[in-house]
Design brief:
The chain is of the alpha/beta class and about 450 residues long. About 35% of the residues lie in helices and about 10% in strands. The chain has helices spanning about 30-40, 60-80, 95-105, 115-120, 130-145, 165-175, 190-210, 225-230, 280-290, 300-305, 315-335, 345-360, 365-370, and strands at about 1-5, 45-55, 80-90, 105-110, 150-155, 175-180, 220, 240-245, 250, 275. The longest helix is centred in the middle third of the chain and has 23 residues, at about 190-210.
Length: about 450
């Protein structure tokens, strides 16, 4: 069983979009920590992931070390494989923390929203000062040391215009995998949605160009569409049951559902048990009441954050999933056709791909090939070239990451009018071609 431990509700940042509610000085109790670790292999599994979450988990570094020592002991006793993961803002990474990460091969997800303008717009320190320099310093320390690092980027209506530059910046710094969440439950104007759509198309261009140059970069929201285009299963392998253990011992299906872990808050209705229960009962509850976004199902956390119900997807979440799915399919198609090494198009070229997506048509490889053939197009921006770090393993949603919703017809927004579109000529089907499930 995969276990996420919320080590503390303390945090040294004050992010405007934080779903953890009011930060309070509550750390995990040692008895809760021990019982949580005991769940890892209680179901007889031979491979399990232990994740550390918060608040800022490195503010409870001693608890992290105790849990790691216990978990490694349990894994050795059972001859099992243990994966360690931590989601952090990166500001507390010093020599001692770095040595711990490297010695125990911890997969680290750093919450950084990209370039300074995007990051500092929503992620100030608890004292109100900008946090970019401190977060960037932690990220660079990890990358330079060869740690396994990916980035969690959050996109808001105000920072949507920076999404392409932010993704390009992170890739150029040496981050290979970007986990991009969209802020839900906030008002997105038509202009902001259009801007984000164009930025996502631009990110798709950059990803395609880098892949064709041999860089193993990833933008996680595109991956469901890429897998779908290739006819691959969303999440091969046996079921991975997971549970989140709050500081109090309350159990939740997913990290964003913990909130303040208050008995009077909306999160109380989301609990699936308590750590004091029998491990078999906990596993049964996690299996039946948990989330399965890692198996291609819709993200219940995204639904909850947007609509207040984990079972009711919201308009923006479905819209984001549809757009990213379409771009991912296009990237996969172009890669599978082994397109020639491209030069990235100018920003005006992105509008052509954007128009095709807006019209509901598939953006196919012929369109991409035409755009990539512009002789006068500049090379992609290379901010800094660094040695690539290892691809994260396992490829599961990290605590705090929103999985992509199941694709559905694009939602209508209030006041939006759809103009009739001419019926496109169907492309001929070939052996192995997979039709989109909503066609």
């Amino acid at each position: 069983m995969d276990v996420s431990l919320v080590l503390t509700h303390r945090c040294n940042l004050d992010c405007g979009y934080c779903y953890a509610g009011e930060h309070h000085k509550t750390d995990i109790e040692d008895a809760v920590l021990r019982r949580g670790v005991d769940l890892l292999f209680a179901d007889g599994s031979k491979r399990a992931q232990l994740s550390f979450f918060g608040g800022e988990p490195f503010l409870a570094f001693d608890a992290m070390r105790r849990a790691t020592a216990l978990a490694e002991g349990r894994a050795e006793e059972r001859g099992a494989e243990l994966v360690l993961q931590c989601t952090t803002n990166g500001t507390r990474i010093r020599e001692e923390q770095l040595r711990f990460i490297l010695e125990h091969d911890v997969q680290v997800t750093v919450s950084i929203d990209g370039i300074r303008e995007a990051h500092d717009a929503n992620r100030p320190s608890a004292g109100g000062k900008a946090s970019f320099d401190a977060v960037y310093a932690g990220l660079r320390t990890l990358l330079d040391a060869g740690a396994r690092v990916d980035a969690m980027m959050v996109i808001t209506p105000e920072t949507a215009e920076h999404a392409y530059l932010s993704a390009n910046f992170l890739w150029s710094e040496g981050v290979r995998t970007i986990r991009a969440n969209m802020v839900l439950g906030r008002e997105w104007s038509e202009a902001q949605r259009a801007e984000l759509r164009e930025q996502l198309v631009s990110i798709g261009w950059e990803l395609l160009a880098r892949r064709l140059r041999g860089e193993e970069v990833s933008f996680r929201p595109f991956e469901p569409g890429m897998r779908e285009q290739r006819g691959e299963a969303a999440a091969p392998g046996p079921e991975r049951v997971k549970v989140v253990v709050a500081t109090s011992g309350n159990l939740y299906p997913c990290a964003p559902m913990v909130g303040e872990d208050s008995d009077t808050g909306p999160e109380a209705a989301l609990r699936i048990g308590h750590i004091d229960q029998d491990p078999a009962a906990i596993r049964a509850a996690a299996s039946s009441l948990g989330v399965s976004c890692d198996r291609g199902k819709g993200c219940q956390c995204a639904s909850y954050l947007e609509t207040g119900s984990r079972y009711t997807p919201g308009q923006m979440g479905r819209w984001y999933g549809l757009v990213c799915n379409e771009i991912g399919r296009t990237i996969a198609e172009s890669l599978d056709r082994q397109a020639p090494r491209p030069a990235a198009p100018r920003r005006r070229g992105f509008v052509w791909g954007l128009a095709a997506i807006v019209g509901g048509a598939a953006v196919g490889a012929p369109l991409l090939s035409g755009l990539l053939a512009e002789d006068d197009a500049p090379r992609p921006c290379r901010l800094r070239s660094r040695k690539a770090v290892a691809t994260p393993d396992p490829e599961l949603p990290m605590p705090g990451e929103m999985a992509m919703p199941e694709p559905e017809p694009e939602p209508m927004f209030e006041g939006e009018i759809l103009e009739p579109e001419p019926e496109p000529e169907p492309e001929p089907m070939v052996d192995g071609d997979i039709a989109a499930p909503w066609d």
